[in-house]
Each structure stands twice: as C-alpha cells, then as structure tokens.
Amino acid sequence: MHAPDFVRGEVRETEHRQGDDLLSAGLGLDGLAGAPSPIAHALHPTPAELRRRAIQASWKGIADLGPLGGYGRVYGGVPDVPGREYQAFAWIPEAHAPHRVLLQVPDNFDRARRCLVVTASSGSRGIYGAIALAGAWGLPRGCAVAYTDKGAGSGYFDLSDDSGVALDGTRAKRGSTTLEFEPAADTGGTNVAVKHAHSGDNPEADWGRHVLQAAQFGLAMLDRAFPDQAPFTAQNTRIIATGLSNGGGAVLQAAGLDDGHLLAGVVALEPNVRVPDQGRALFDYATDASIWLPCALADARFHATPMARTPQGDVPPRWAQRCHQLQERNLVSGTRVAAQAAEAHEHLRASGWTDEAMATAASTTSLDLWRAITVAYASAYMRRGPDDMPCGFRYGGVSDAGISIPVDGAARASWWADASGIPPGSGVGLFGGADRHSADPTLPGVLCLRSLWEDTEASTQPLRDSVAATAVKPPRPSLPLWVVHGASDGLLPTSFTSEPYVTWLRSKGGHPLYWKVPYAQHFDAFLTIPGFGDQHVPLLPYGYAALDRLWSHIYEGASWPALVPTPSPRPRGSSALAREALDLPPAWTQAPR
C-alpha cells in the first residue's frame, strides 16, 4: 500500500510487543512516573531507548502521575497495549520543514467498529506529546491513534556540528539522510536551531492541515496494516479528533477546514484557539503578562498562592524589583511595592485577566515560561533564523549554572526524547535580550517583545500578519464538538480562548458543548508540586469522560446532548484524590478505562 503523496521518504514500521508496548514502551505506570529511562551509552542512544524516553517524557509533561493524584486508580490507566507503529515525515505545500506523523495500531484493533483517533502534540512537544490523552483513551479501546507534532517538536539542529534528528530519533549530519528539521545551509554560528521557532514557516497557521494530514496518513497506514480489510475511509472508519493546549487548538483548526467530512467528532481540552476579532491572541496577553504579572502577584491578595511567595512567606525579590522598575519607567505611580502591585493587578484586570487565572499563573511566571514562549513564537511569526531572532535572543548550550557553554554531547544525543520543543531545557539555554547590569535583567527583553505587538512599524507587521493567520474557521454545524477547559487556567485563560470560541461558534449556528471545570488549571503535571495539587483538580479525567460520551454517540446510538451539566469537583487537599471529588458523570460506556 502506497503512502500519501504528502509523505516524502520512507515510512518506518516497528513492532512493539513483549515488554515494549505502544502506550508506555514497557514501563507501565510505575516506570513512567519513575526516574528517566536509562540509556546504556549516553553519546549513542538507540532508537528504542530514545522512543522509551520520549514516551516517558511526554507522559510526565502532561499527566499527574504523583502518588496522591489518582492516575490509574481513580481515573485513567496504562495497560499493556502491544502493536505496531508507522512513522514518517509529511509536508504541507510550500512548507520549509516537515511535520512528523505517527500511527499506532494496537493488536486488538477493533475491526468491527473501526476507530481512528487523530491528535496533535500539546505545546511544542515531540510526536508523542498527546499520548496521555489520545493514546491512553484510544489504544485500550481498540482504536488506532494518529499523531502529528504539527510542525514543532524536539528535532533540534546543532549548528556547531551540523547535525539534526533523523526519522528514528537519532542524530545525523546534514546531507546524510532526511532530517526532521535543518536550517539553511549558509546559517553561521554555533547556536541551536529549533523547528518551531526557526523553520521559516508559521506552523501555527497550519495546525489544522497538519491534523488532517495525520488523519489521512492514519487511514493509509491502516490499509497497510490490514490489507484484507482495505480500504479504510472516513465512511467506514470513524475519525475522532482530540488534543489539549496547542493540540486542542489544532483539532479546532482542523474542524474548521474539514470540507471532506473526515472527522466524526472533536473533543478539545484547554485549546489555544483564536477567533477573528474576539478574545486575545496568545502573543498579546503573554507579552503583557510577562511584564506585569511579576509585580501584580506581589499584591497581598496572592499571599497564600502557591509559588507566589518565598518559603519564608515574602514577595520574591525579583518580583518586588519588577514593581520598582515599572515605577522607574512611569508605568505605575506608587512609591511602595504594595501600591505598585495594586496598580499592576488593576492593569491586568482591565485587560481581561481574572484573579483566579492570575493566581495559577504564578507558576508560569515563577518558571519564566512567558518569556520562553514569546521568544519562540516571535521568531516563528517573523520567520527568523537561529542567528537572527527578534530582540537579540538566541539558543545555545548551557551549564547547570546557566552559563553559555558548548553543547553537551550527551544532552544533544537525547534531545529528541527529552526536550520540550521550546528552550530552555535539556542542555539548551535562552540567551540575549537582557541587560546584565540591570537589577531586573529580563525586563528589556520582554519590553522589546511587547513592542513587536504594539508598534505599527512595517518591520514588525509580519508578526501581526502571522498571528492573524492563526484564526480558526467555523466547523460544519452538525459536527459533534466539545470544549473542556479549566476555570483556573493561568496559561490559556478561558476568557481569551474557549469562551470567545464557544460564543462565536454558537453565533454561527454551531452547537458546541462546553465544560468550564472548577479548580482545574493548565498543567496536570504541576499537581505534584507541594501546595499546588492541594488546590486544584486534574483536567484529563474530564477529557476522557467527554470522549466516552462521544464514543457512545458514534457507536452506541446515544443522542448527542444539547448541553451537559458542568461537574462540581472539589480539590483533594492534602489527601489522595478520590473519585467522588471529581464529580464525574456516570459511565456512558462499558469500555476499559
């Protein structure tokens, strides 16, 4: 069976059985939650070792696998699912770089009720970046699962030795094989190039096409896996799209582009979605937050907020310094931190932030994620290379002390498995855009990033044009579609994303279901942080429940509801999570969970 025309190069087929399954690469739940899977020879990991680490890193980045979180006991599970994988590089017309596509076909594939789940990675993660949602729900049920990294991923290119990532995840030199990403050959320097930031594309504008290509790839590979059952089509194989965060935005983009009626239903969790002329674009509110949130969180109302105070209960000195710097620039007028913080808080409130979203954004702010995200997105939107990033930023090797050093060979060898898709991390640092002599060294860089959005110069217009190109289109009104979002999301607040989308869709005759889940926030994985999990609930179980309901509609004839009651969960506090605390609806199906 032939691969689709948009696939260039080989399709890599591998079998995963007897201690090396599809869902956990043989690690099981305890192994996924444990120490990083070992690599025998750090400079030369095998494809199998890299795959196992990539799956483990994706699980740890998305799910709450902590002992109090309840995964595998209260909801979810990690059964042994043997099967096959098919992986390739796919190309959007006129793209400079491919996106990776992968199909997992379980041995227990249900031929009587053909099911293909299609998904896109969260954040900028690699190809397994949605396995904790789509794989965990679909594979035990007998569905095949098709993935795309949607033009991002962890195929970093090291300019110092001219190497990138091959299809099997190992390092390879430019020209020796097809690579996941390689910058222009005349790019100089010793920086690290990242596909999302430096491909020369605006991958976010094509997320929907990436998802639809992954679905088409999945059908084609099912033909290859079961030639006696071919052809697999959208008419005889139901295709369910699901994703979270950027992956949630990707499946909503795909729904709006699905003129061929490939998709049978969509469940989007905490989507990074933008509709025309409503809500706020991520780059807009993230650059604003990177300037103002450190000071706003110094306000007394956030005294008990996890990660908003030092262990001694004080305002972090760098946040107090941000307040002082805002006053120096006449952005606030108060003379003391308390007054300055109150003004910063009011600025964010006036721009649409809620106190609830600000409180959970203390984690994002403490970890400096706003700056990391907006640097990468600015470079992607402006189509800059690794030596020409906006505002003087660059990526390169970094020591544990944060000092610029040559790239570590062992870290580089496992980038594909360990990296998140946006530095810093995995031995790659974010440098530049700072004033080392300032008491607040990161402020000049974030002010520069904000100016890219606010000014009207022709040189920055490509950024605003690229952001405009990411707006979604409405799906067909008959498509079953469910949006699930945490009320406490501090990275992609509902007031900027899901709520404008649902309102807009209903104004166009659509009938989306919407759960705004109390106490749920963006990162289930953060629930292992002391004090953080006490105050929040995981979002994944509500995504699984929505998918269960969609399954019962598609395969068991259950009616698609006009609305569904929003659950009323309660945080677990200092105890282990109990199922009744989630207030999940009664089971809609008898499928394994």
UniProtKB/TrEMBL annotation:
Name the top EC class: hydrolase
Q: What is its EC number?
A: 3.1.1.22
Per its UniProt record, what InterPro entries does this chain match? AB_hydrolase_fold, OHBut_olig_hydro_put
Q: Name one Pfam family in it.
A: 3HBOH
UniProt keyword terms in alphabetical order: Hydrolase
Q: Disordered: where is this region? A: 566-593
Key word Hydrolase present: yes
A molecular function (GO) held by this record is: hydroxybutyrate-dimer hydrolase activity
Q: What protein is this chain from?
A: Hydroxybutyrate-dimer hydrolase
Task: Please name the source species.
Answer: Dyella japonica
